[in-house]
Amino acid sequence: MKVLFKILIAIILVAAGYFCFLYFAHYSEGVRAGELVKFTKKGMVIKTWEGQISQGVSESQFFEFSVEKGEQGVIDDLNSFQGEYVKLHYFERYRNLFWLGHTKYFVTKVEKIKKHEKNNLINP
After folding, report:
1. d(CA 87, CA 29)
2. Which residues contact 17 (CB under 8 A, 6 or more apart)?
3. Mean pLDDT over all residues of the chain?
4. pTM, entire model
5. Which H/E stretch holds residue 39?
């Protein structure tokens, strides 16, 4: 009985360590810029904030991202910047966690791009 209890505790500790790693460890971080095409709250049971920016002319140049619900300032900014050019500061997790968002990319800060900066994005 003691051996079974120790195995169960070990499994719980390994699982907790794995989920802590997925949540806290960041695979990469960076900045992306483009036109904010879409920002919505979606989901049937678990609602998450999801968005998309267009980084160019073709369909393949879209960047999809999520925003954690605790980032209310970012959510408010993205809602007000619909259709504008924005610069997104984000981090990437190793895997997506469905209760946080549909992507591995999570935006932590958003900046509206001024007109002269937008021209530099389009015509480098």
Report:
1. 13
2. none
3. 86
4. 0.78
5. strand 26-42
Return d(Cα 97, Cα 100) in angstroms, integer. Answer: 6
Domain region containing 98: 27-122
Domain CATH for 82: 2.40.50.140
Q: Does residue 58 have a pLDDT over 70? A: no
Q: With bands split at pLDDT 50, 70 and 90, how would you rate the model's confidence at 20?
A: confident
- In total, how many domains does the chain have? 1
- Asked whether residue 5 is domain-assigned, the answer is no
Amino acid at the residue 122: I
Residue 6 included in any domain? no
3-class SS at 18?
A: helix
Question: What's the DSSP call for residue 86?
Answer: E
In a domain, 18, yes or no: no
In a domain, 105, yes or no: yes
| Cα(108)–Cα(91) distance, integer angstroms | 8
Region 12-36: mean pLDDT is 88
| Distance between CA atoms of residues 31 and 64, nearest Å | 13
